[in-house]
Automatic annotation (TrEMBL):
Recorded topology in the membrane: Multi-pass membrane protein
Keyword Protease: no
Listed name of the protein: Probable membrane transporter protein
Cited Pfam families: TauE (PF01925)
Similarity comment: Belongs to the 4-toluene sulfonate uptake permease (TSUP) (TC 2.A.102) family.
Positions of transmembrane segments: 12-39, 83-104, 110-131, 178-206, 213-236, 242-264, 271-293
Main subcellular location: membrane
Subcellular location: Cell membrane; Membrane
Keywords: Cell membrane, Membrane, Transmembrane, Transmembrane helix
Keyword ATP-binding listed: no
């Protein structure tokens, strides 16, 4: 069944859009990430304008992250103090991202910029995850146990005004998570991602945050930051297509439940390996679209003279 998207200004097959939401929802439940990194490129591949894909993906990420955040909340897997600092930084980052987004729209480079940022971002994240996971699997194959060492960062340790985040197991300056929130807020606004794909590794490997609360705290931040970003997109760029977002949510909610069930009992290292490969495939497809010339370089419309 075809349905018209008023903001994207094109007709799409509703079943296909729901199917895309289902795929991304399964990915979200399977790997524990927001899924926005996959949703935006898939919509772009389908023909949705990048600016609309970004704004509508942020809307979908907001809705799909609520249930996950509530589940972690009930299990005590959310550090509220850390989450509040991350949200504050995320909102500041969203405001900065809105200025950048508006500038790129003004100069007519928003579509190209979104695609380029995705290629660079996904390539870096994918290769980093792949390298780390392969190294871990090799150690396991040799029977070598990884050393549990507390990670220290000289820059973070030097920041003033330390605060204790008990659930996260940290005693650091709130400036550190605040700056991380700003970075994720900018990326979320421009790329339409939830931010978990970059925030979770930073919280673990840079801040040394407890793994037991990192996912729940990240989802807590995602809910409020992406909600603010959705409002900014709706008011400023006017690229939020609510019809598209609702269709994506229909598939995403069901897919997230399926993915969570599939993930039970699967080795986390192999899940991370599969996620790294998936990220690199998406980056490669985007790069292919940017470098290969289309069949029709020009579209010429002749009018009466």
């Amino acid at each position: 069944m075809d349905i018209y998207l008023p903001i994207a200004e094109l007709s799409v097959n509703a079943a296909v859009i729901i199917g895309l939401g289902l795929i991304v929802g399964i990915t979200s439940g399977l790997f524990g990430v927001g899924g926005g990194f996959l949703m935006t490129p898939l919509l772009m591949f389908y023909g949705i304008p990048p600016a609309v894909a970004v704004a509508s993906s942020a809307t979908q990420v907001t809705g799909s992250s609520v249930s996950g955040a509530m589940a972690h909340w009930r299990r005590g897997g959310v550090d509220l103090k850390m989450g509040a600092v991350l949200v504050a930084g995320g909102i500041v980052g969203a405001l900065l991202g809105s200025l950048l987004f508006s500038l790129l729209q003004t100069i007519g480079q928003i579509d190209l910029t979104i695609s380029l940022i995705y290629v660079v971002f996904l390539s870096i994240v994918g290769f980093s995850m792949l390298t780390e996971t392969v190294r871990t699997l090799r150690r396991q194959a040799k029977g070598i146990r990884p050393k549990r060492t507390k990670r220290h960062n000289a820059f973070i340790a030097a920041l003033p005004g330390r605060m204790r985040f008990r659930a996260a197991g940290l005693y650091i300056s709130p400036l550190a998570p605040f700056l991380i929130g700003i970075l994720v807020g900018v990326l979320t606004f421009v790329m339409g991602i939830g931010g978990g794909l970059i925030m979770v590794p930073i919280l673990i490997y840079v801040l040394g945050m407890s793994v037991s609360v990192v996912v729940g705290t990240s989802l807590f931040q995602i809910v409020f930051t992406t909600a603010a970003i959705t409002m900014l997109h709706a008011v400023q760029s006017k690229t939020v297509d609510i019809v598209l977002a609702v269709l994506l949510l229909l598939g995403g909610v069901i897919g997230a439940q399926l993915g969570a069930r599939i993930a039970i009992g699967l080795p986390p290292e192999k899940l991370r390996l599969a996620l790294a490969i998936l990220v690199l495939i998406v980056a490669g497809r985007l790069l292919f679209g940017l470098t290969v010339a289309p069949d029709n370089l020009f579209s010429v419309q002749l009018g009466g003279i």
